[in-house]
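Researcher: Structure prediction, please.
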Amino acid sequence: MKKINLKKMQNGGFTIIETLVAITILMISIAGPLTIAQKGLTASIYARDQITASYLSQELMEKIKNDKRSIWSTIVSDCSGSSVELVRFTRSCSVTVRSSDEITVTVTVNWSNGTVNNSVALVNEMFNIQL
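Model: Predicted structure follows.
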């Protein structure tokens, strides 16, 4: 009959503490890159929304600038206090009359990502110059 050496068997395996330490090190090494990836995804979503808001505000400002009616009172009445909801974005416009030949047009686009509210504002001074 063959004898089994018990001392060799006891030293050959991993203890529960060694296993837990190895698992902890593995979890920490995986959590770092996942956190970085999540932050990058959040930043790219914010950048996409900010570009969309910028384009929406620019679009309305160009519409106001290229209005062929060029009647100040019409621009003021069309824009003042108006608000348009576009999917997740809300676009609003306001006009401040500086003088009979000058107005300030402000286009603001608001949106929210979860609990964070964001906005982009575009301000333009317009002059009524007759050539």
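Model: The first helix runs from residue 6 to 12.
Researcher: Thanks, that helps.
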